[in-house]
């Protein structure tokens, strides 16, 4: 695999539930902190805080069950702020992005300001029963717009009320090939987090190896931990390989529905791992490949709504984490289109 290597900083996602107006300030503080941790220069951390504040304020005024998800951008340098809700949707989305348009008696500059300040901003609203709106604002250093346009998204959440996340994920791009991992330490809490981080370090040590070799190395590394379920994906233009042990699922989504449903082989990486097998499958242009741990309820894939099928990877990750998360388990979803397919619209 030739070309520059771009890595994902695999930190858990910070979630700010917007159930009171005070959450607007918390969202701003959280976004500023994540942006600083990402090394964004100058006034960019303050801009991240303004973007988060505007999105949280919009949720507070107009939505129900709204949450911001704040984290580094999936690839390269930058910060990503995702908003998801189960509100009524936006029947006049284009007007909502215009300065001066408001339904709450305010100045009506929120979403317009976000669109101007972010390096890249995308938003979709549900058109089927249930509504909902999903937005993604990415802020990157000057001259690095390509990072903001990467068509990959992920969300990684700890059990509510716990600091340690027993899941982890990472994605590495080399040229036109992406290699992604979703890692689920058995159970949850500190010991699960330890197992996930050991697996993560093993993966990042040499992510370009054949997928079965990556799993074999993880199996050795995890022998002194409680073990983990692991799903690995190698995504190229028009095709992909999946190799997994345990309950990390993979599938392909297109506008016509769900394809290539795959689940890892029975076993535990670090304890009772069978000889890993790789499954190859085609990836049509514009399709999205999804990896997710069992903290995401798999029933979402039985009959996904048309709105869900049309979401780009960043918004799809937020929608699945927000709408189909099991609250008693760590939850991770990672979605990507092939590197050479069209960028986020």
Describe this structure in words.
With 345 residues, the protein is an alpha+beta fold. It has nine helices and 16 strands. A six-stranded antiparallel β-sheet has the order 1-8-9-10-11-14. The radius of gyration is 19 Å and the shape is globular.
State the helicity in percent bands: 25-40%
CATH class of the largest domain: Alpha Beta
Q: List the uncertain runs.
A: 100-108, 341-345
- Per DSSP, the total helix count is 9
Shape: globular
Radius of gyration: 19 Å
Task: Give me the CATH fold name of the largest domain.
Answer: Phosphatase 2c, domain 1
Mean pLDDT over the residues: 89
CATH architectural designation of the largest domain = 4-Layer Sandwich
Structural class, from helix and strand content? Answer: alpha+beta
Strand order, main sheet: write it out.
1-8-9-10-11-14
Give the CATH H-level superfamily of the largest domain.
PPM-type phosphatase domain
What is the chain-wise order of helices and strands? EEHHEEHHEEHEEEHHEEEEEEHHE
Strand count, sense and closure of the main sheet?
A: 6 strands, antiparallel
DSSP strand content: 25-35%
Pfam family, one: HATPase_c
Domain PPM-type phosphatase: 149-338
Protein name: SpoIIE family protein phosphatase
């Amino acid at each position: 695999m030739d070309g520059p290597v771009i890595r994902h900083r695999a930190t858990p996602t910070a979630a700010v539930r917007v159930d009171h107006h005070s959450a607007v300030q918390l969202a701003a503080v959280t976004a500023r902190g994540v942006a600083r941790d990402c090394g964004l220069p100058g006034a960019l951390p303050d801009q991240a805080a303004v973007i988060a504040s505007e999105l949280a304020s919009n949720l507070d005024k107009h939505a129900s069950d709204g949450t911001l998800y704040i984290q580094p951008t999936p690839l390269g340098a930058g910060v990503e702020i995702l908003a998801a809700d189960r509100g009524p949707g936006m029947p006049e989305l284009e007007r909502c992005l215009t300065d001066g348009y408001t339904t709450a008696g305010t100045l009506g500059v929120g979403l317009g300001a976000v669109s101007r300040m972010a390096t890249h901003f995308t938003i979709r609203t549900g058109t089927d029963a249930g509504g909902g709106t999903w937005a993604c604002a990415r802020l990157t250093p000057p001259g690095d717009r390509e990072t903001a346009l990467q068509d990959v998204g992920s969300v990684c959440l700890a059990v509510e009320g716990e600091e340690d996340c027993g899941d982890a994920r990472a994605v590495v791009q080399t040229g036109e090939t992406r290699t992604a991992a979703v890692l689920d330490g058995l159970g949850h809490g500190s010991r699960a987090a330890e197992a996930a981080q050991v697996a993560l370090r093993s993966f990042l040590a040499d992510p370009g190896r054949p997928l079965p070799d990556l799993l074999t190395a993880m199996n050795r590394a995890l022998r002194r931990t409680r073990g983990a379920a692991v799903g690995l994906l190698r995504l190229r233009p028009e095709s992909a390989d999946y190799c997994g042990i345990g309950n990390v699922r993979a599938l392909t989504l297109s506008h016509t529905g769900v394809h290539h449903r795959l689940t890892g082989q029975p076993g535990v990486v670090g304890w009772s791992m069978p000889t890993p097998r790789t499954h190859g499958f085609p990836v049509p242009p514009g399709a999205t490949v999804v990896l997710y741990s069992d903290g995401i309820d798999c029933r979402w894939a039985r009959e996904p709504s048309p709105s869900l099928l049309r979401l780009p990877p960043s918004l799809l990750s937020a929608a699945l984490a927000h709408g189909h998360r099991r609250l008693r388990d760590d939850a991770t979803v990672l979605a990507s289109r092939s590197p050479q397919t069209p960028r986020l619209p």
